[in-house]
Amino acid sequence: MQNQIIPEKRLREIAIAIKDGATCYIGIATAKIEYLINEPKNDKEKKQNEKLLALVDKEPDEYLKIGDLPKEDLLECMRNFADEIKDSRKAKELKNALNRKNPTRNFMQGIDFDMEYSLYWETFTINWRTDWVAEFIIAAHNY
Q1: Is residue 85 located within the same domain as residue 116?
Q2: Is the domain of 76 the same as that of 122?
Q3: What pLDDT band is residue 1 in, cutting at 50, 70 and 90?
Q4: pTM of the entire structure?
């Protein structure tokens, strides 16, 4: 990854994969991106996972690991989304959901039953996660 740039398209792929539960490993020297599938569906995916884990176990310092967003970052994403909502009643509903017990569950319930907001959330969260992945990689590179 030294002096190598990961294209926006690949950052987006990483964001989608981690959103779907995969863990991403990026080869530091090669910038090769590989995914550990959270719930492998077949033997091929299981073997891929085993092969990747063996490589990472053998040379852990050669890989950058990117898992899902920490809870605090996910909550920040949700707050930012609520701030973007033009309908003040819906925005207030989502902000109130984030201030109660089980904020993630409450927030998702607030948008799951509304197709417009559900689709908007899907797009928003992928874009937000893409930016988060880019910042994560930059921070790791600078560290």
Answers
A1: yes
A2: yes
A3: very low
A4: 0.85
